[in-house]
C-alpha cells in the first residue's frame, strides 16, 4: 500500500521508498465504484415475497453475510472437488450464486428456479446499481492526467452491461474474473490482467475495498495498491491504513 508524498513527488511505499507513477489505474467494482440499490436485503425480501417467502431484512442480511463466507469461490469450488478452487467461469458463478440464494431464502424445489432467475436478472440491470458520489470526479481527474483506466473485479458478464451503462464515456478496460478464468486473490488473475495490459506489474495500480483481494495479494505480485476504507475496514485493519473516498486516495497519490 502507498502513503501520501510531497506535492510533485511520485508516491512513497510504506517503507519510504520512491515508486514510479503507474500507467494504468484499476478499480474494483462492488463496494469501490458501485453498490446495489435497493440494498441486497431489500431486494431479496421483495423477490422472496413475490414467490411466497416471508423473511425480515435483518434475517436476510445475516443469512447473506453467512452465505458469502460459506460459499466464497474458494470454498464453493473446493466443495465441487475442483483441482484449483480459485479457478472460475460463468457456469461456476451461476452455480455459486444459486447456492447463496438457496441458503438465504430457503426456497422450495418449486420456487427455487424462479427465485434465482429473478435475482440473477435483477442484478444484471444497471438501474439496480448506483455509483458512489466520488467515482465520476475521480475518473475525470485520472483521464485529464492521461492514465489508462480499468475495472478489475470478481464478477461475471453482467458487469459488462452495468459498466457500459455508467462508463460509456470513459475508456475503461474491463477485467472480469469469470472471463479471466481466475478470481482475486489468485496470482493467476493478476498475471493474466498484467499480460493483457502489456505492462510490468509495478506500472499497475489497483484501488479497492477488499484488504486481501485488492491490497495484499496484488502487492505480492508487484502491483501498486491503495486500500479504500469506506466503512472502517475489516478486523485488524486500522482506519489510518486506508482512504475514505476515491478522491482522497487519488489526490494524495497524484498531487497536482
Q: Would you give an account of this structure?
A:
With 256 residues, the chain is of the alpha/beta class. Helices cover 45% and strands 13% of the residues. The N terminus is likely disordered. It folds into 2 domains: 154 residues, Rossmann fold (3-Layer(aba) Sandwich); 90 residues, Orthogonal Bundle (DNA polymerase, domain 1), CATH 1.10.150.720. The chain contains 11 helices and 9 strands. Strands 7-6-3-8-9 form a 5-stranded parallel β-sheet, sandwiched between helices. Strands 1-2 form a two-stranded antiparallel sheet. Strands 4-5 form a two-stranded antiparallel ribbon. Helix 1 crosses helix 2, helix 1 crosses helix 5 and helix 4 crosses helix 5.
Report strand %. 5-15%
| CATH architectural category of the largest domain | 3-Layer(aba) Sandwich
Residue windows where pLDDT falls under 50 for at least 5 positions: 1-18
Widest sheet, order of strands: 7-6-3-8-9
Largest sheet: 5 strands, parallel
Instruction: Please give the alpha-carbon distance between the first and last residues.
Output: 20 Å
Q: Shape from CA axes?
A: globular
Portion in helices: 40-55%
Mean pLDDT: 89
Which fold name fills CATH's third level, the topology of the largest domain?
Answer: Rossmann fold
How many separate domains make up the residues? 2
How large is the radius of gyration?
19 Å
Structure summarized in a few sentences:
This protein has helices at 40-50, 57-70, 73-79, 90-105, 109-122, 135-144, 158-167, 177-180, 187-197, 211-221, 246-253, and strands at 2-3, 12-13, 24-27, 34-36, 129-131, 148-153, 172-176, 204-208, 224-227. It has 256 residues and is an alpha/beta fold.
Amino acid at each position: 500500500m502507498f502513503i501520501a508524498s510531497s506535492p510533485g513527488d511520485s508516491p512513497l511505499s510504506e517503507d519510504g521508498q520512491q515508486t514510479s507513477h503507474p500507467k494504468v489505474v484499476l478499480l474494483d467494482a462492488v463496494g469501490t465504484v458501485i453498490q446495489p440499490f435497493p440494498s441486497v436485503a431489500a431486494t431479496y425480501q421483495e423477490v422472496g415475497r413475490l414467490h411466497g417467502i416471508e423473511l425480515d431484512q435483518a434475517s436476510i442480511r445475516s443469512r447473506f453475510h453467512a452465505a458469502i463466507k460459506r460459499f466464497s469461490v474458494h470454498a464453493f469450488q473446493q466443495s465441487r472437488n475442483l483441482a484449483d478452487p480459485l479457478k472460475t467461469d460463468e457456469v461456476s458463478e451461476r452455480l455459486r450464486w444459486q447456492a447463496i440464494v438457496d441458503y438465504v431464502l430457503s426456497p422450495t424445489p418449486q420456487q427455487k428456479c424462479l427465485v434465482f432467475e429473478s435475482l440473477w436478472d435483477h442484478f444484471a440491470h444497471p438501474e439496480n446499481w448506483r455509483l458512489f458520489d466520488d467515482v465520476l470526479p475521480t475518473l475525470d481527474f485520472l483521464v485529464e492526467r492521461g492514465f489508462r483506466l480499468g475495472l478489475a473485479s470478481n464478477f461475471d458478464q453482467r458487469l459488462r452491461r452495468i459498466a457500459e451503462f455508467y462508463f460509456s464515456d470513459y475508456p475503461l478496460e474491463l477485467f472480469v474474473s469469470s472471463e479471466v478464468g481466475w478470481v482475486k486473490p489468485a496470482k493467476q488473475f493478476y498475471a493474466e490482467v498484467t499480460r493483457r495490459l502489456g505492462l510490468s506489474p509495478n506500472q499497475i495500480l489497483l484501488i479497492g475495498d477488499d484488504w486481501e483481494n485488492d491490497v495484499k495479494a496484488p502487492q505480492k505480485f508487484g502491483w501498486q495498491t491503495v486500500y479504500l476504507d469506506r466503512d472502517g475496514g475489516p478486523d485488524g485493519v486500522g482506519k489510518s491504513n486506508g482512504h475514505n473516498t476515491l478522491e482522497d486516495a487519488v489526490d494524495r497519490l497524484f498531487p497536482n
